[in-house]
Amino acid sequence: MTMEPEIVVSLNGVSKTFRDFWLRPTVVAVDALSLGVRRGEVFGLLGPNGSGKSTTIKMILGLLSPSAGQVRLFGLGPQSVAARRRLGYLPELSYLHPFLTAAETLRYYAGLCSLPRREAVRRTRELLAMVGLEDVANRPVGGFSKGMARRVALASALVGRPELLVLDEPTSGLDPISTKEVKTLVKALARGGMTVLTTSHMLADAEDICDRVMILNRGRSVAEGKVAELGTSLEEFFLAKVGDVQDFALAPFLKG
Question: Is the sign of the CA dihedral 36, 219, 43, 130 positive or negative?
Answer without folding.
Answer: negative
